[in-house]
Design brief:
It is built from 5 helices and 3 strands. The protein has helices at residues 9-24, 46-57, 66-71, 82-85, 102-106, and strands at residues 2-7, 31-36, 93-96.
């Protein structure tokens, strides 16, 4: 059994690339994921906007879930946001998110 885990940016990577890891470890019977504080709010596209740089300059396109990239073909960088990539996960995922994440509480209008 393998549990892929990450915290904060590592959790984002875990959530975004979990299917790729599953394929790479095809011989492992059980692959699961644990994401600690990787679910960032994307209010009005403010968060995903900054992920465009990663998509365009860091050749990170191979790390996102292909189904997500196809679904969001005009803005594939939004697949770096858990809310967009997680629906395509093919393995069980346990997400742990602090409700006191200072980045989330001060990064936008949290009243929505």
């Amino acid at each position: 059994d393998v549990i892929l885990a990450g915290c904060s940016s590592g959790a984002i990577t875990t959530l975004v690339s979990i299917n790729i890891w599953r394929e790479l470890m095809h011989w492992v019977p059980n692959v699961m994921a644990f994401a600690d504080s990787g679910y960032f709010l994307d209010l009005d596209g403010d968060y995903s906007y900054w992920k465009r740089f990663i998509w365009e300059t860091q050749n990170a396109s191979a790390s996102v879930v292909p189904e997500c990239a196809r679904q969001h073909a005009t803005e594939p960088w939004v697949c770096f946001v858990a809310a967009n990539s997680l629906p395509h996960a093919t393995v069980p995922v346990f997400a742990w998110q602090s409700r006191f994440d200072s980045n989330q509480l001060t990064g936008g209008d949290c009243t929505r």
